[in-house]
Design a protein that fits this description.
Layout lengths: L3 E3 L4 E3 L2 E2 L2 E4 L5 E2 L15 E4 L36 H7 L8 E6 L5 H16 L3 E5 L4 H11 L6 E5 L3 H11 L3 E5 L16 H18 L3 E5 L12 H5 L2 E7 L5 E9 L7 E7 L2 E4 L18 E8 L2 E13 L7 E4 L3 H13 L8 E7 L11 H13 L7 E3 L2 E2 L5 E2 L4 H10 L4 E4 L11 E4 L3 H7 L5
Parallel strand pairs: 7-11, 7-12, 8-9, 8-10, 10-11, 18-19, 20-23, 23-24
Antiparallel strand pairs: 1-2, 2-3, 4-5, 4-6, 12-13, 13-14, 14-15, 16-17, 17-19, 21-22
Length: 465
Amino acid sequence: MSGVVVSLRGVVKNGRATTTYRCAECGNEVAKWVGRCPECQAWGTVEERGVTRTAGRVVAGAPSSPARPIGEVDVESARARKTGVSELDRVLGGGLVPGAVVLLAGEPGVGKSTLLLEVAYQWAVKGGVPSLYITGEESAGQVRLRAERTGNIHGQMYLAAESDLAAVLGQVEAVRPGVLIVDSVQTMSSPEVDGTPGGVSQVRAVTASLVALAKERGLPIVLVGHVTKDGSVAGPRVLEHLVDVVLQFEGDRHSSLRLVRGIKNRYGPADEVGCFELRDDGIVGVADPSGLFLNRRDQDVTGTAVTVVVEGKRPMLGEVQALVTATNLPSPRRAVSGLDSARVAMALAVLEKRGRMSLHNKDVFAATVGGMRLVEPAVDLAVALAVASAATDQPLPHDLVVVGEVGLSGELRRVNGVGRRLTEAARLGYTKALVPPDAGPLPPETRALVAHDLVEALQLLKLKK
């Protein structure tokens, strides 16, 4: 009777390995070729993977280094080193760790290259160790012009225009930098792999080679990545698994504000956010970004409500604006900018049903200030009160901040970190706060208005007719 042994890489029958097939998008393996991956549902990504293993058993070999008690492992070589860009260090968890590979993804023109030129400059200035910037999308002269405009030129900054992986490795041997920046990974190609630059096989092979280089030399590497139409990182899904840190660079073309959001981080928090302002002369970190999202006024204005959101561990104030106007159209307009349209629709439904507010024959427009995107449930109360203020033409107090989630039955639910949110609001001069019950300890300088449901909140603020 013939035996069948399942190995880690394929099926071994009678001591001989059979071929397996692997999805280039998610890495899922199947026994036979299929047109659509059963795991990630991607079409045309399943490729043949040759298997040369001839036995189902692995023989123990000599370890590369003996195991030691964890308390005796040297940690100094793994300490993070600051990049000189404080907001980026915040997201990275203190700086760049030796041997770490960071993937910075973002839309074209958002400012990725400008930020990384600043990183290369600060590294060269403060560390005294060369930084190497490899560009595969522009010529060296074009990058030099941008560096002149932003003032990022130093004798220890090295620049090369390469798109071949072997040439990149040669540049690393010649310069021996302290940090390597590759812009971008989709433009690089490996001579060992077939396929066009940017293809699945090429991106995977180039990234794997650079990760091996980083671990071997203890060299931190920053890779620039493109994104797809839906904002996800372009290329195979295994790309995000290979690297140590994944950062998302976000920003509106019509706003100077830029956010670097941590998606994955093996060396620090994965939910931290860094704020930057993109200027004509470069990019600058914004340590106190709350003022960018507010229109400070000394008088009350209808249709506005101020709330506090938490991005990572950082509380930031944001302003919600609403406009409610009568319409003769059979289907009133509902326009939303910077907010979750589904949550706005639920807030309008709760106002109609629980608050007895007539909105079915009115156009409703809701937006944020400064290009900020407010999507967490803590913004629900601010959206509802801004719409109610616009509908009744009654303003909210200009020194009031509102925080809370609104349920479909109209109840106000507590959100996390209310005390931390209101401390930030009090620092900026907001002395009143409308909060749900059991909000926890609040700052002593804040006067709390507690409402159990949306109807009670409308009555407290005199927004209910």
